[in-house]
Amino acid sequence: MIDLHTHTTNSDGTWSTKQLLEKAETIGLEVLSITDHDTAKSYIEIENDKKLKNIYSGKLIIGSELNCTFEGIKIEVLAYDFDLHPVQEWLDNYYSLEKNKERLIREFEDFVNICNRKKIKIEENLKYNPEIEYPVDVIYHSIIKFQQNKKFFTSEQWNNKEIFFRTCTVDKSFPLYRDFSKQMPTLKDISKFIHIHNGKIFLAHLYQYNLNNHIEFLDQIINKNLIDGVEVYHSSFTKEQTNTLINYCQDKKLLMSGGSDCHGEKKKERRLGIGYGNLNIDKKIIENWNVKYN
To answer: Domain tally for the chain?
Structure first.
């Protein structure tokens, strides 16, 4: 059993690198990749701490989940097996705390301006703290306080913050859609950068994006030769969705990945290695990766 999609406190997980490694050892994971958002700091920690190195007896694949955009749509990709230090140096610079804070403030201001322009009611003088909040969360909770705003959204968007967020980032007809390429790199840029540093790029959790046609969207990315593979196993996928992606990758001769997307105690029902109980990923899917284990 392997898990190639996990998070620690270096991004939005609740377990430290040490705790995640201990959990992976306890359940007997054969291969693990820590894929924190826009950072690979866990591997720097492991490299610098002999005690951490000795916790987990399985194999580690360097990884990170990177935010980017494709055709104006915000997506995430999983980068694996890259040269750690030059990539982390770039990530530390591009996603520095100060730069991230500036981007989030700009994002919040954009949402406020869109609401005002489209007559979507929000609280006057709505406050935002980039240290502890996401802009979409603040805007969403303000919007749903006013029943007159219901006319702008579907019931799913109105009642589910995650659906609201995912639609906001991919559906250009959504009332609050904004082009995220102003605050994050394009998939083309990320693909070029990771490949220069000997890594591999996989599209993460395709079916979490609220798209009209997921395979058509995937085709567009593949036709531009921007990724090496697809995350075919994910906690949120149905068996049918997983089989569709496996067949797609086999047909297109793409690499395959998969993982729980475990965040520790956050969404704790999504467990390391097994997701919602629907995962048991065989390490055979990485046999053709030609991977360097850490």
So the answer is: 1
Residue 265 belongs to some domain of the structure: no
User: Cβ(259)–Cβ(4) under 8 Å?
Assistant: yes
- Cα Rg of the chain (Å, integer): 19
Q: Which of 54, 44, 45, 55 is nearest to 21 (CA)?
A: 55
Residue 102 CA, distance from chain mean position: 21
pTM value is: 0.89
What domain range includes position 141?
97-181
Taking a C-beta distance cutoff of 8 angstroms, is the pair 294, 43 a contact? yes
Mean pLDDT, consecutive 10-residue stretches, the chain (294 aa), reads 96 94 96 96 94 93 95 93 97 88 92 95 93 90 96 94 86 87 90 97 94 93 97 97 97 97 91 95 94 80
* 272 Cβ contact list (under 8 Å, min separation 6): 3, 6, 20, 23, 24, 27, 29, 260, 262
Please check whether residue 177 lies inside any domain of the structure.
Answer: yes
